[in-house]
From TrEMBL:
GO molecular function: 3-hydroxyisobutyrate dehydrogenase activity
UniProt EC number: 1.1.1.31
The name this protein goes by in its record: 3-hydroxyisobutyrate dehydrogenase
Alphabetized Pfam families for the sequence: NAD_binding_11, NAD_binding_2
Gene: mmsB
Keyword Cell membrane recorded: no
Domain of life from the UniProt record: Bacteria
Domain 6-phosphogluconate dehydrogenase NADP-binding: 2-159
PANTHER family assigned: 3-HYDROXYISOBUTYRATE DEHYDROGENASE, MITOCHONDRIAL (PTHR22981:SF7), 3-HYDROXYISOBUTYRATE DEHYDROGENASE-RELATED (PTHR22981)
NCBIfam families (alphabetical): HIBADH (TIGR01692)
UniProt pathway annotation: Amino-acid degradation; L-valine degradation
Catalyzed reaction equations: 3-hydroxy-2-methylpropanoate + NAD(+) = 2-methyl-3-oxopropanoate + NADH + H(+)
Lineage: Bacteria, Pseudomonadati, Pseudomonadota, Alphaproteobacteria, Sphingomonadales
Entry keyword set: Branched-chain amino acid catabolism, NAD, Oxidoreductase
Length: 288
């Protein structure tokens, strides 16, 4: 397929390169010259204008920072500019309301569109092992699947438009809560005189097991290797976790969902992000 890829940053850069590896032709556009130069070296054709990048393509993939930018890119450069038959895939993490709005505008103009946010960070984007949670019609999902499979290890149809974003923010709210809980328990065990490694060995095989403890242990030198062992560099940035928690709390409010722990996790990450937005989100253990 011929695919336009808009937004070639930390995540999009590797994703576009994986589309090229899967023998898709990729037209790349980004506001950053540096991102474009990298895309070119990875085999993409680069464009100075997004409206030109979408000419004659079979699909458009976007990986952009937020909902406002996604809306402006689709309204200004994709809808009405890409060929009618093109399938549109927004892989950014954005608010559910904007995802639904942009999908509705695309559908009204005759396009199939999915929201397809990802789980997995930069390493998964580079390695082609992302998990995609996809919102859209059966038809749009069917068309998007081939494109997504070239960039990920799992592609799951979550439901109608917006369902991908809903899955993503609910998952990440749970992750934030479980990370804080894991960090609290590990620090408390240590303060009570229990060797944290012993606590890890026991709890990771008991009812306390969870991804944050078992697969991403937040304490250096304990459990599995994780960003904690690299001074909390790399991994999933605290600033991005805070972004997702804000989206989650916004969505909770619109749905009248009760999320007391999600709200508290957001407050804790808000405080922590003031000086530590670039550190991995598991570094929140340092505040305990
Ligand atoms: P990033 O800031 O590295 O990349 C975003 C890119 O979009 C940049 O290269 C920027 O120049 C470009 N851009 C901004 N406005 C644009 C416009 N109007 N037109 C064209 N290009 C434009 O961000 P990222 O880390 O790649 O994240 C992208 C999305 O993926 C976000 O929604 C983020 O929440 C989500 N996400 C990130 C991670 C992660 O670990 N980094 C993990 C999961 C999901």
């Amino acid at each position: 397929m011929k695919i336009a890829f808009i937004g070639l940053g930390n995540m999009g850069g590797g994703m576009a390169a994986n589309l090229v590896k899967a023998e898709h032709e990729v037209n790349a556009f980004d506001l950053s010259e540096e991102a474009l130069a990298t895309a070119k070296s990875n085999g993409c054709e680069t464009f100075a204008d997004p409206g030109e990048a979408v000419q004659g393509v079979d699909g458009v993939v976007t990986m952009l920072p937020n909902g406002e930018i996604v809306k402006s890119v689709y309204e200004g450069s994709v809808i009405g500019k890409a060929p009618q038959g093109a399938v549109l895939l927004d892989c950014s993490t954005i608010d559910v309301a904007t995802a639904k709005e942009v999908s509705a505008a695309a559908e009204a103009a005759g396009y199939d569109m999915v929201d397809a946010p990802v789980s997995g960070g930069i390493a998964a984007a580079n390695g082609g092992t992302l998990t995609f949670m996809v919102g859209g019609t059966e038809k749009a999902f069917g068309r998007a699947e081939e494109v997504l499979q070239a960039m990920g290890k799992a592609v799951i149809h979550a439901g109608d438009a917006g369902a991908g974003q809903t899955a993503k923010i609910c998952n990440n709210m749970l992750l934030a809560i479980s990370m804080i809980g894991t960090a609290e328990a590990m620090k408390m065990a240590e303060k009570l005189g229990l060797d944290p490694q012993k606590f890890y060995e026991i709890s990771s095989q008991s009812s306390g097991y969870c991804w944050s403890l078992n697969a991403y242990t937040p304490m250096p030198g304990v459990g599995v290797e994780s960003p904690a062992d690299k001074d909390y560099k790399g991994g999933f940035a605290t600033g991005l976790m805070l972004k997702d928690l804000r989206l989650a709390m916004e969505a909770a409010q619109t749905a009248d969902a009760s999320t007391p722990l999600g709200a508290h996790a957001k407050e804790l990450y808000e405080q922590f992000a003031r000086d530590n937005a670039g550190l991995d989100f598991s570094a929140i253990i340092r505040t305990l």
